[in-house]
Amino acid sequence: xxxxxxxxxxxxxxxxxxxxxxxxxxxxxxxxxxxxxxxxxxxxxxxxxxxxxxxxxxxxxxxxxxxxxxxxxxxxxxxxxxxxxxxxxxxxxxxxxxxxxxxxxxxxxxxxxxxxxxxxxxxxxxxxxxxxxxxxxxxxxxxxxxxxxxxxxxxxxxxxxxxxxxxxxxxxxxxxxxxxxxxxxxxxxxxxxxxxxxxxxxxxxxxxxxxxxxxxxxxxxxxxxxxxxxxxxxxxxxxxxxxxxxxxxxxxxxxxxx
Length: 258
Description:
This protein is of the alpha/beta class. It has one domain (4-257): PAC-like subunit (Rossmann fold), CATH 3.40.50.10900. The chain is 33% helix and 27% strand. The chain has helices at 29-41, 95-111, 141-146, 166-174, 196-210, 218-241; strands at residues 4-8, 17-22, 44-51, 59-60, 66-67, 71-78, 81-88, 114-125, 134-138, 163-164, 179-188, 256-257. The chain has an eight-stranded mixed β-sheet, sandwiched between helices. It has a two-stranded antiparallel sheet with strand order 4-5. It has a two-stranded parallel sheet with strand order 10-12. Strand 4 (59-60) and strand 5 form a beta hairpin. Helix 2 (95-111) crosses helix 4 (166-174). The two termini are 27 Å apart.
């Protein structure tokens, strides 16, 4: 059976597709951004992924029933461009499964002819940034050049530490097959802080870059519900996996985790 269960719901044909990844991490910046895109663009579910390498737990949902942790990929064509949007409850909890999962996502990208991968995440700071900066790095200089914009900073050396988890591995494992970049927004590095402002800055850039018709102000109205659901799951899973991104001590060198 293997460690991975990948269920495909629809068959789609993509042309020069772009995968945008946002899994839980520092401030859940990437997850907040991609979940918002999925809702705003009314994307359709394409894949559902579950695994024995995910935390050994189930969630109680709004229907008072249990559900296993899962990662999902959604599809949307917008402005003539095909997008795969990757989000989920968890990340793989150890190094080997992180590599395996990242390779499987790259295989899915190759299967659908994706040419680009964009991973999203947060840079944990010891205090709340008033106006979060967004940084960009990638697997090649050409990839970074393609997504360069006055809204983002490409000078990361000495500012950002290791990019740990799927958001980093998708970049490292893609080259030279697929162009891959990471967009990392500053956020407060506390485990119970939801990086809405950082997510908004990333969404503004994506909206400009791809012409998405999204209203980021809606995020402010949805904060309460998102904080309750997203941070509740993050807290629960951190106790189980002991891999929570928030376990990094504040005030140390700035690092991005997953």
